[in-house]
Amino acid sequence: MSELLNKNILLGITGGIAAYKSAELCRLLIRQGAHIKVVMTPGACEFIQPLTFQALSGHQVYVDLFDAGANNAMDHIELARWSDLLLIAPASADFLAKLSQGYADNLLLTVALASQNTIAVAPAMNQQMYQDQATQQNLQLLNQRGVLIWGPDEGEQACGEIGPGRMLEPEVLSRHTVDFFKPGQLTGKHVMITAGPTREAIDPVRFISNRSSGKMGYELARAARDSGATVTLVSGPVCLQPPSQVNLLKCQSAEEMLNQVMSVITEQDIFIASAAVADYRPHQIADQKIKKTDETLTLPLVKNPDILSTVAHLYPRPFCVGFAAETTDLELNARNKLENKKLDLIAANWVNDEKSGFDVDDNALSVIWPGGMQELPHQPKSLIAEQLIDIIAKRFLLVE
Length: 400
Ligand code: PMT
What we know:
Elements: E1 8-13, H1 21-31, E2 35-40, H2 42-45, H3 50-57, H4 75-82, E3 85-91, H5 93-101, H6 107-114, E4 118-123, H7 127-131, H8 133-144, E5 148-149, E6 153-156, E7 162-166, H9 170-181, E8 190-195, E9 200-203, E10 206-208, H10 215-226, E11 230-235, E12 247-250, H11 254-263, E13 270-273, E14 280-282, E15 301-303, H12 307-312, E16 319-326, H13 330-340, E17 345-350, E18 362-369, E19 372-380, H14 381-399
Parallel strand pairs: 1-2, 1-3, 3-4, 4-5, 8-11, 8-13, 11-12, 13-16, 16-17
Antiparallel strand pairs: 6-7, 9-10, 14-15, 17-18, 18-19
């Protein structure tokens, strides 16, 4: 009953009918040992009185952005610094839209913008508003920035409609909060992940590359972070927002990727190579743009360093995880790579259909290690990443 002992939780409440349920949530969190302070938007005060939360939390409830009585009028900074978690429940469609765009026109938005700690939101709105593309895009953006999205639930709504959009019940939100504070499997461990393609220059404007989007590697970085690890993401050129609280090392070519990897490899416990590194690069990079004079052009290529193999042959070395991108004989080729590169585990994916592998949101993996194997069926890369990190953590903790 004291799983949240001495945790400082800032409970944000926005304008929605589910605001009345937040009183129960506040009570449940306090019962588990948390210190709760409450910030309400003016809209929330239309649904429930601040006095209710003052009585439950034992603290003044914060509503006004411009409170002349506040410390140097700096409530938003003080509250942001104080909290270990900012839990916004209910989070209305309007609030989520403003949060995703960085608005700061009420105290709760200002606190969220000033907060360096984790923010969790529990969406609550009409099912049509929830399913609207604008709300979905706002939630996606927030998720990419590391905001935890808890819910919503499906079912009958206050407006009489049925569908997704109900705020999760207080008991469920309280369980999520407890889980959030539980140490992850990789707490205290350092994990490095390579992601995306490399670009091998031909001349100042052309390069050789591949279709990797970096999605698989970025989702792995997010999942490793959520498991408690300190994550270094070594990324080739991609158009993705890096997950929050992850150290990002950027690179273009395979040689640059190798240099970035080697610069901090001795600090790593686990190395995961999900990048699609170009196997070859042009022997020479032309100083000037190559002219279109001849009918054919031959470019001599030389082999790039194998980054994964280099790391796996270090002594001492981190726990090494490779990927295998195959168009034939998936398992056979993956097992050969596992053995030849001296890996601890390999995740093999087909890359010859449009539903998984390169540059799509989903994937399916055959995960193989010496003496074992597990299939991860076709699903979004975010879920595949969570399951793969779970397998890696368990294997790593066994051999550590
Ligand atoms: O980025 P996405 O669009 O999300 O796509 C994800 C993915 C398909 C790129 C990913 O799931 C994947 O399969 N990554 C590995 C791609 C690859 O290069 O596979 P490979 O079988 O050619 O290489 C085997 C392993 O050696 C890989 O772990 C690779 O990172 C590593 N390698 C390869 C060559 C090299 N010079 N250095 C390496 O480290």
